[in-house]
Amino acid sequence: xxxxxxxxxxxxxxxxxxxxxxxxxHIYDLTRKYYLLGRxxxxxxxxxxxxxxxxxxxxxxxxxxxxxxxxxxxxxxYGLDISSEMLKSAQQAIARAGLxxxxxxxxxxxxxxxxxxxxxVNGFDRVFxxxxxxxxxxxxxxxxxxxxxxxxxxxxxxxxxxQQEKLPRWFHHxxxxxxxxxxxxxxxxLDACLQSVASSAGMTAHxxxxxxxxxxxARLKSLA
Length: 224
Prior knowledge:
Helix content: 40-55%
Strand content: 15-25%
Distance between the termini: 31 Å
Number of strands: 7
Low-confidence stretches: 1-9, 20-31
Shape: globular
Number of helices: 9
Mean pLDDT: 88
Radius of gyration: 17 Å
Order of helices and strands: HHHEHEHEHEHEHHEE
């Protein structure tokens, strides 16, 4: 695919996300807390070392960054999102929380960004993606890009919708139909993608099912 085509796709996705969240961003956290399961467990599992640089890709309203910054006060946090509308809410929430000195935001494409240009950081000790891959057209590219930005011994943490493999079939169909209304597509090939990235980059990969398959939690760890 040409660079021009990639740019057009990125611009279209940014516009789509802004259109969806221009109004929803004001009620996003209130409505999502009941079904975006596993986010707080991901934050607890981050365990960044002292002085760590931590990046959230697809930071949305900043909710996760605020929770993580409070739990891990020894780390500096960064947030990337393609939606300028979501970043407005994130900036306001972070300022209200008094965390603007520890959380830094930038607009960018999860599948193609430059951490050094945006944040002045060459590699991140922790990167996390919470319910974002299911909304990113080039989600496999987003996994590769996140892994590429890991510092030596860094970790990529992911939580997203699973395949509801141990839940009733009717629930699976109902959930997927409802999510499709918001341009959300659970990624059945997530484990295969992680294993491929890990193999090519000299990393380890692990995926586990949460809540009978409602969600999947995954981790890539750099060995270098």
